[in-house]
Design a protein that fits this description.
- This protein is an alpha/beta fold.
- It folds into two domains: 33-93, Arc Repressor Mutant, subunit A (Orthogonal Bundle); 105-285, Rossmann fold (3-Layer(aba) Sandwich).
- Helices cover 46% and strands 22% of the residues.
- A seven-stranded parallel sheet has the order 6-5-4-9-12-14-15, with helices on both faces. Strands 1-3-2 form a three-stranded antiparallel sheet.
- Strand 2 (80-82) and strand 3 form a beta hairpin.
- It is globular and about 55 Å long.
- InterPro entries: Carb_Metab_HTH_regulators, DeoR-like_C, DeoR_HTH, NagB/RpiA_transferase-like, Tscrpt_reg_HTH_DeoR_CS, WH-like_DNA-bd_sf, WH_DNA-bd_sf.
- One of its GO terms (molecular function) is DNA-binding transcription factor activity.
- Residues 33-88 form the HTH deoR-type domain.
- This is DeoR/GlpR transcriptional regulator.
Length: 288
């Protein structure tokens, strides 16, 4: 009997290990698919238009795999297909729509969100800017006993079924980015004070500061900084290469710090060192 028991136990352990390996491989596969699709979106964002054959040459995967990715992204409305080419659906804008930005660098943004969530404690009032990185932060803090103030329709929706008290600024709805901006939103923020604010940036101006592409966003972000006792600018490392026209905060402004993903790129390293020299708290996720 003891021998039979040992055989059954060994078989069960072997089966458990096989199941665990299968789950791990499936998880790795999903991450690889997501990263490959992110790379496709990055190429299309940079070029505006590419042929399918060019994408096949640029990305190390089989032609059939690339075509499946293109079909998936097209069905989601993130790209446009036409006669052997793929196009950026909003090529005339310096900033992509929210649904596209949510896909781009999504793993990095999830890691940034985890770091941000560690700063949020029970009982706090938190202000979240609009944008894909702040949306990731909202999802990371949805189980906390806190109050969230935001101008983001997506964040309000994401937290609707949670126990978090959500306060929306109101204002004029900006359709492309699904958020409220304008005078009413600005006045609302001017009249509150929160424990911590997470403010998104669509670009970093080298040796200078953090930027956005919209004058309305500029006004709103300036007020978010003023309304927060602690202020963190949040962005993934791709923003070191996409400075926009309006700089809402510089490295020496009264902001607490920056949360971004780790990077081995020299430009990112130099800029982060400069931010540290100006007294900013630099928090890096482990994701390269």
């Amino acid at each position: 009997m003891n021998g039979i028991f040992v055989i059954l136990l060994v078989n069960r352990i072997c089966f458990s290990n096989m199941l665990l390996n299968t789950i791990c491989k499936r998880g790795d596969l999903e991450i690889n698919i997501r990263k490959r699709q992110e790379k496709i979106l990055e190429f299309i964002q940079e070029k505006g238009e590419l042929s399918v054959n060019e994408l096949i040459d640029l990305i190390p995967a089989s032609p059939a795999t690339i075509r499946r990715d293109i079909s998936f992204l097209s069905e989601k409305g993130l790209i446009i297909r036409s006669h052997g080419y793929v196009h950026n659906p909003d090529k005339d804008s310096p900033v992509l729509p929210l649904k596209t930005r949510t896909i781009l660098a999504s793993h990095k943004k999830e890691q940034i969100a985890k770091k941000a969530s560690e700063l949020v404690k029970s009982g706090m009032t938190v202000v979240l800017d609009s944008g894909s990185t702040c949306l990731a932060i909202a999802l990371a803090i949805k189980d906390k006993d806190i109050t969230v103030v935001t101008n983001s329709i997506e964040i309000c929706s994401a937290l609707a079924l949670s126990d978090i008290k959500v306060i929306c600024t109101g204002g004029i709805m900006e359709n492309k980015h699904l958020c409220f901006l304008g005078k009413d939103a600005d006045i609302f923020i001017e009249n509150i004070e929160v424990d911590i604010g997470f403010i998104g940036a669509t670009g970093v101006r080298v040796n200078s500061g953090f930027t956005t592409s919209s004058p309305l966003q500029y006004d709103f972000k300036k007020r978010l900084i003023q309304a927060s006792r602690k202020q963190y600018i949040v962005f993934d490392s791709s923003k070191f290469y996409s400075a926009n026209i309006y700089m809402f905060a510089n490295y020496s402004d009264e902001i607490t710090g920056v949360i971004t993903n780790n990077s081995t790129d020299e430009t990112a390293i130099v800029q982060l060192d400069l931010m540290r020299d100006n007294g900013l708290d630099i928090i890096l996720s482990n994701d390269l």
